Amino acid sequence: MSSTREKGLIVSFGEMLIDLVPTESGVSLAESPGFLKAPGGAPANVAIAVTRLGGRSAFVGGQLRQGSEDRTRFRHVAFRRRKRVYVLPEPECRHASSARRT
């Protein structure tokens, strides 16, 4: 085996969420004076962890048409800031979190 051989790519599929992290520790969520936004969600966290461990990863997630456009933009910008993690958004998807009662 050659030492210059390229590493495989681990791809995570799923939703990227926005975690709200309290700005003050030791208080309840209701008592927190504010929150920081951080990209999260299990599949996204796996992709980030893989890159931090020296691997190559990509994240493929659905971009819902519903909801705030600002939230969608935040998710993509925040996630792209991670080193060597590629964001491959799916233009439109339907999954459990977008289900509606008819």
Automatic annotation (TrEMBL):
Kinase in keyword set: yes
GO molecular function, one term: fructokinase activity
BP GO annotations: fructose metabolic process
The species this protein was found in: Brassica oleracea var. oleracea
Cellular compartments per GO CC: cytosol
Keyword Aminoacyl-tRNA synthetase: no
Protein name: Carbohydrate kinase PfkB domain-containing protein
InterPro entries for the chain: Myo_inos_IolC-like_sf, PfkB_Carbo_kinase, PfkB_dom, Ribokinase-like
